[in-house]
Each structure stands twice: as C-alpha cells, then as structure tokens.
Amino acid sequence: MYLVRVTLATVIYVGLLVRLPQGGATEFVIASVALVLALVFTGVSSWHTHGRRQPASESFLYLQSVFDLGLVTVIVHVTGGAQSDFFPLYIPVIAIAAVMIPVHGTLLVSALAGLVYFADIFWGQAGGHLANMTPTVWLQLGVFLVVATLTAYVGSRVRVLGEEKAVLERELSRVQLEAADILRNIRTGVLTVDSEGRLLFANPAAEEILGLRASDWTGRVVTEQLARISPEFWATIQTTVRNGVRLVRQEAVVHKGKRSFPIGVTTTVLESGVGGAPAGVTAIFTDISQHKRVEELRLRAERLEAVAALSASLAHEIKNPLASIRSSVEQLSRTGARAGEEAILANLIVRESDRLNRLLSEFLDFSRVRVTRVEPVDLFRISQAAVRLVREHPDCPAGATVEISGDPSLVEGDEDLLHRIVVNLVLNGVQAAGAAGRVTVHVAPTSHDLLPRGVVFDQPVTLVVTDDGPGIPDHVREQLFDPFVSGRAGGSGLGLAIVQRAVQAHRGLVLVDSEAGRGTTFTIVLPASGSVRDAA
Question: What does the pLDDT average to over 303-324?
Fold first, then answer.
C-alpha cells in the first residue's frame, strides 16, 4: 500500500508537469501539495507500523483508505474531472481496502469513493448541474460498485484463508514446540541419520547415552564414530538402511570410556528417497541396564525358589537317617569300653553328625523364608534384641564389640523374619571382623534423597550394619547372595541368601558396600507403610 501510493503520486506529479498548460500554477501547486502530503503521511504511517512495530488497527486502515480517496479525488479534479485519465485510480484504492479491512468496510469505502467522485463531477464541474452526469459518469460509478462487490468477496475469501493459515501455523508451531520439548526432556535417545550416514538429529538423551555432541556432528558423516561407540547399534541402522525394514527391540552394547552397558534399539525408516531407497533412519534407544538387572534378579529369585524347594526336600530326607546314625553311635559308645581309636572315631561321627544337622537346619530355614504375619513392629527394638543375642552367641569372638544406635522405626512386617535378618547380618559382621573387631548397627527412618537413584519407597527405613573386617573378596562379591557361596572358611553360604530372601519378602532392598581392607557395610531399605500387605 505504501509503495503503490508513493509511486503513483510521484508518477502523476511528473506527468502533470509535462501535461499542464502554461499558466496552470494553481494545478501545479495542488499537485505539489498532494505529493508532499502523500510522502509525509506515508512516512508517518510507515514509522508507526514498521518503526514502532505497532499493529495496524482497523481504524488505522480506514484512515489510510480515506487519505487515498482524498488524494485520488484531488488528482482527478486537477486533471479534468470526468475527462480525467486518472479516474481508474479509485479501483486500486477499493481493491486494497477489500484486502485489508472487512467486507462492510470495503462497501463503505466504495460508497465513499462513489460519493466524492459524484460530488466532484456534480458540483466541482460547471456549477452543479445534472447535465454533468453523463452516461460515462454513471458507467464509472457502476464500475465502482462492481469492483467493490467483487473485491469485497475476494478479499473476504483471502482473509478467511489467511486466518485459517494463521491458525494452522500457530497449531503447527505449538505441535513443533511440544514435540521439541518432549524430545528434549524424555530419557529415551532419538537419533536420525540419512542414507549417507550424515547425522540429522540427536536429542539430549541420545547425546548422553552415546557420549557425542550433536552440535559437533550434525550434517557430518557419523559412521565411524557410531561404529566405534557401539558396533551393534550402527549395524542395526545399516541393516535398516539396506533393507528398508524397521527393526524392533534389538540389543546393542555401548562402550563409553571404561564403562559398557546394554541398550535396546528400535529403528524406523524415513520417507523413501531416489529409487525407493530409504532417505534416512531414525533410531529410538534407551539404556536397559536396569531392566537387565531386574531380569537377573528375577531369574535369581526363581533359582533360589528352586534351591529352597530342593533344600527342604533333601533336609527332610537326610535328617531322619542322620538322627538314627547319631543315636546308634552314641549307644554303641556306651555299651562298653572302646579302644582309643574307636572312641575317637565315635566322637568324630557324633561331631560331624551335629555339624550336618546344623547345616540341614539352615537349609530348612532357607526354604521357610516366608512372611507369615504382617503387623506394625519397631525395627530398632528388634535390632536391640538381635544384638543381645549375637553377643551371647558361641561364634561371637570374646573381644568383639557390637554397638547399636538409632531411633524407633516402625515398619510393617514379620517380627521373627526381621529378627533373623538382623541376627544373620550382625553375626556375619563379628565373624568377619575377628577377635578385636567392631560392628555397628544403626536403625532410623531415612530421606528419599539418601537412597540410590531409581529406588522409591513409601517412608523408607534403613538398617545399616558395618564391620571393620577385611572386606568381601572380589571373587565372592558378584555371587554374594547365591546359596552355598561363602567368603569364610567353614561357612555354609546360606546366611546372606536367607537375608536377601527375607528382605525381598518384605518388598525391601539389600545394598552392599565393601572395599578390601576397609570393612563391609550392609544397608537394608524397607518400606514403613503397608506396601507388604498391598503387594500380597
């Protein structure tokens, strides 16, 4: 609008300079004033909308149309009124108004154009006679009406389409922002490469999992880098590119510094490129280390259940004949004096029978780990009783120190089973620490901030048992909770297996920290509320 106005005003001014007869000073002054007003008004309007970046209101647009009508009327009047060659200038004014303002506004501008043109012809030419209204003038007014109607309709359609486009653009922008926000915040990696191996996109999770910066590799061939980080991951992408078929639930191993961990990968093909070949591949992947651990724990629990069933069966089958053997040996030893070697052998049989009996009792304990009665109990009070029992236990060294601290901590569970947990842990601690060893027990409610990442409990309570012994050997640590695995000579390897099964029966968690020469810490985390009952 600004450009058309200034251009036409300048061209008309130059044309008037050429066409005006000698002595037409009045017309020249009017044309000059019209040009100056057009330049000034356009400059002010442009500064308002572009300099100040103010929106063009409806009143502002009406003002523009009225000014243009006045400018055209002056030009038409100066150049001959009904005989003016500039009469068609009314048409672009009406057309521009139709695009910018609503339909009713376009009709008003068209009516105003007709009125000012009629007034200029009727009163401005030859004193105001109807004779001035020639058929040509009426035809021109009819053209105004037709142009106004057509341009108003077209303008309304353009405006509706423009509004729909604006709505679509806003919706698209909103969806793009939401998608970008989702991709930026999800913990799943999303990576896209084209068929040539150039990186197109990688979200922050992908950068964190793979250990590469998208800003450094976007637009560059990333083949060798991905093959170095995870050969299986890159092979999955290459297979998708080559075959054009999406792959679901593939596994790969990421090598990130000194750490390696598994990821689950799903790939999908982008729209086809030249010759039907894939234009690119998007890989969606996530760290499945935790899932692997959960699966391993599930399999371990199944194995423990099988071992427990077998242990119970074997223990019942062996205990009865073992008791008979022991009883028979005792009776034979009482029937008369025996030589020295016979007495030694008899005592050996009795002693080994007792040891086997204790081992079978532990088998039965392992198989009977069940939460039979759930009620609110004070874990601190249970731990105090367990510590007193361990202090009097025959396997507790005389010089060992066992200390307990903490606060009353209510949990819902089986009191007998919780007592066995504490006894096993404390007894293991004093046996590992030795004659001058020290074992500390601490029980208290804890904060979620102190739990490992990913561990969520309702009102967690922790039982921490620490000893200053030699620590757990590396070859034992990975199988610490498996039955029959022990780091102590003569140990059955069932104590910690019983602890783990008992903690799991209470929907809890066992954490172990051990370093060679610096002792071991067992941390039991239990939910304080009715999680056990709800799970059951």
Answer: 64
* 139-154 b/e (C-beta count within 10 Å ≥ 16 → b): ebbebbeebbbebbee
For the ranges 8-12, 60-64, 410-414, the lowest mean pLDDT is seen at 8-12
Of 298, 370, 419, the closest CA to residue 532 belongs to 370
Q: What does the alpha-carbon distance between residue 259 and residue 528 come to, in Å, rounded to a whole number? A: 35
For every residue of 253-304, DSSP letters joined together read: EEEETTEEEEEEEEEEEPSB-GGG-BSEEEEEEEE-HHHHHHHHHHHHHHHH
- Closest CA relative to residue 76, chosen from 23, 144, 129: 144
Count other C-beta atoms under 10 Å from residue 198's C-beta: 16
Q: Which helix (H) or strand (E) holds 522?
A: strand 520-527
User: Are the C-beta atoms of 228 and 256 separated by less than 8 Å?
Assistant: no
Determine contact, residues 69/148, Cβ cutoff 8 Å. Answer: no
Q: Could you tell me what percent of the chain has a pLDDT over 90?
A: 6
Q: What is the DSSP letter of 490?
A: T
Residues 6+ apart with CB under 8 A from 103: 152, 153, 155, 156
Measure the CA–CA gap between 109 and 97, rounded to whole angstroms: 7
| Per-residue pLDDT, 23 | 46
Side by side, the strands of the sheet bearing 189-194 are 199-202, 189-194, 280-287, 259-269, 250-256
**490: confidence class by pLDDT, cuts 50, 70, 90:** low
Cβ neighbours of residue 228 under 8 Å, at least 6 residues apart?
255
Stated as kind and residue range, the H or E segment containing 193 is strand 189-194
Between CA 225 and CA 218 the distance in angstroms is: 12
